[in-house]
Each structure stands twice: as structure tokens, then as C-alpha cells.
Amino acid sequence: MPGPIDELRKRIEAAQAHGGEAAKERQRKQGKLTARERLDLLLDPGSFSEIGIFVETRSSDFGMNEKRISGDGVVTGSGTVGGQLVFVVSQDFGTLGGSLGEMHASKIVKVQDLALKAGCPIIQILDSGGARIQEGVLSLHGYAQIFQRNTVASGAIPQISIIAGPCAGGAVYSPAITDFVFMVDGLSKMFITGPDVIKAVTGEEVTFEELGGAAVHGATSGNAHFVAADERECFASVRRLLSFLPGNNLDDPPMADSSEWPPEENPALNEIVPVEATRGYDVRDVIGNVFDHGDFMEVQADYALNIVVGFARLGGRPVGVTGNQPVHLAGVLDINSSDKLARFVRFCDAYNFPIFNFVDVPGYLPGTQQEYGGVIRHGAKVLFAYSEATVPKIALILRKSYGGAYIAMSGFGLGYDRVLAYPMAEIAVMGPDGAANIIFRREIEAAADPEALREERIAEFREKFATPYTAAVQGLVDAVIEPAHTRRELIRALEMTANKREARPEKKHGNIPL
Question: Does domain 267-429+467-497 bear CATH number 3.40.605.10?
Fold first, then answer.
């Protein structure tokens, strides 16, 4: 007769093998890893500590009393990533379709609570058929509990969602509340209503991939922050992201060994930004020549291409980086780029990342489509996010900084700590052409040679206002720097602001213009 230790080992082995080889084979045929294989890729070897391995459903309706399986379709626990403690949830599609019932939800809620108490990041790997219909309203109650904890934890501990299969209906709201969403091309699916329902209601015909695949959410909806070619690449990206992040909002992001790369003098930077205001260039070339090792982890790289956001290190310290992208829509701010920028800035502020803006922006995008779509409200999110942020805020004006976009991304009045500019920077309410047309309109119309006078007035306006020196004289630019000295000047700016303290009025929270 087996003893208690043998019985324990037998039960653990059975629980870990639920679904058996048949379930594993089904996952492999879909190009998917199992729930436990995913945790092996994510966590440091041997670090996983499981919670709730023997939990089973309490339901007996609709045959559920014959489907009671240890773990109830989800693997939960803690482990380490690069030595940092994290809590994890991995839904097991091979067991009950990964469907969420009462006890499945209770396991997730338990690790959410533990993560918040411990001040550690939480990562959820979602691969589920959705709510467990047999358990009715208890499944919906389970989702509500998860959403509530996602919300309470927001801004306190980093929350990461990995969509590793289907994620439909109410299940999509949990990843939407979390900080970062990872998807896998050809594997992840995320939508509220499926193709059949859409066809019945609207008559539209759409495939699962067209409706909620990784490419759609990475480039069109903006719901995905990172898109990977396969699961292994995905989990490597999650590990890389975690290397930048603190455990919670009270900690600083983890320091790395300080690097001397690129050197303080980097002549390559003198050649990247064209003097001509109409010539394009890739702002990532500037970023790659400034931060440690040129290492830049871009966020939402395929969405709202006119703004670039992501994480880098400067002198070993993780920082948040934003940059207008002149090669797409001339780097203007519009509805989508405003949302992308504001959300990133708020994350950086919540988790103590100094923010560096690389500014080359002609303004907000004009047009009826933007106005009808609410560009005023969306653009105000950027102003709100930067005004709300109390971390060090440092702006470098590379070339153009006009109008309301100047205020948002480099205006001292929003609380920027340091504003620097390249010598080719133009800072004004609007570009010289438009300004001259407004200011000198009557004079130009009455001139014997209107076009010649117009060109003269444009040159006059450019010389007087569209330079960094006028703003510098007025104290609205701290320094005009040679591009080759960018790294040195940004390191000095970070050193002088790293320990800043900024008190704000006591309140429950602000009301961001959503």
C-alpha cells in the first residue's frame, strides 16, 4: 500500500499531466505550447512555485461533476525572471478548453492579491475558450473579480498579458486594463464578438485572423504593444521588457552596468537631422546614437507610426523615450499618436522612469476627420499626461516644435525640467510660411510683386522667431547644443533632475479627457 509521500507524488504527477499526450498533441497541431512549457520559457529554470495545483471546480451542473480536474484549467504561482520575483497565470487550453469558471477565477484572483501584497509584477498567459457556460453567472462573477483587481493594481505593480491563443468576449477586458499586451502572429486571437455573430448582426464576413489577429491589434487597433513571430520570441521579449521594469511603483527601475557607449562626443549625430525643414529622417537613428549600446525597446512599433515610444538606458538607468517620427506624416500628433503617447507617459510616471522627448513636430494634424474624431479630446490627453507626470521630464528639440504640439512636448509651462535644442531648431506658433501669410496678408496682397514680398516676409519671420535663440533669450530653452554632444548633455540633465521631488494637491484622482 503506497504511503502518504507516494500518494502525494502520484497526485502531483497526475495533475501536471492533465490532458495527457492527446492534449499536448492538439496544442502542437495548432502551433501552440502547453501551459507549463510556456512557464518554462518565461521563468528562470527551477524557480517556479505552483499555487493551487489540486483545486477543482465545485460545480456539478451539466455534467461538470464528471469533469473535475486538478488545477481547473489554469496553472498559477510565482517564479523569477532574471532574478526578479514575479507572479504568473497560465491558462491550459488542453484542460477544459482553458475555460474560466468559479475556481479557475479564484486561483487567478489569489495570485493577483499576492502580487499586489508582495509588490511584484504579474504576467498572465491567456489561452481560453472564454467563460465556462456550465457555471453560468459564477463565471461572469469571476471575470468581474479579475477586472477589479487589474484596476486596483494598475499603477502599483506592472501587469503584462500574453495572448497565446483565443481570448474572446468578456475575457478581453483584463488584458486591455493591463500595462502591456503581447501577441503572437498567426496564433493569438482577441475580439469581443466573433465572425459568426458579426455576420448575423451586420452582414459583414470576416475571418478570425482579420478580425482579431496579432497584425490587426499591432497595427490597426493598437490593442497589442508587442507582436512576435512565434511563442519563443514572445517570451524572450517579455523577459527583455521585465529587465527594464521595477517590481512596483515605490521602487526605481533596475540599474545596469554604466556604459560609455556611445562616447560623449558622437560626430555621427551631426549628420542625422537635416537642416532643411522638409527633409525626412528616422528619429530612431538619433535615439540609437544616444543611449547605452544603442539598445532601444520600442513599444507599439507598428501603431501610430508618427510617434515613437519605448525604453532605453542612459548611464545604466532605464528611461522612457519618445520621439516624433518625421518619416511618417511629418511627425504630427493626431488621434492615435496622442493616445499612444499619453498612455506611455503615464506608465513612465507611474513607475519612476525619467522621460526624454526627441521633438520634431509641426503641430496637430488638421482636417475634418481628425476634428470629428475628437482630436481636441485626444490631444488633451497628451497635455494632461505630461502635466500630471512628476518624474524628470527632459525635452530635446531636434528641428520643428510648433503650436500646441510645442506646448505638449517641450513647453516649460507643462513642468519640463530641462529643454534643450539643436541649432537648427524652429520654435514658433506655426511655420514661417503660414505665419507670414497671416501676419502680412494685406501687405502682400497690396504689393507690386506679392510673391517676392511674401518670400521676404517668410525669411524675416524665420530669422526672428523660427530659431532656438529667441526662445533661449526668453529662458524657454535652457541650452542650444551641438548634436554630437547629445549624450553628454542628456546625462547631465538626468543627473541634475534624478532626485527631484514635486508635491501635488491631495485628491482621489484627476479626470483625464478619455
Answer: no
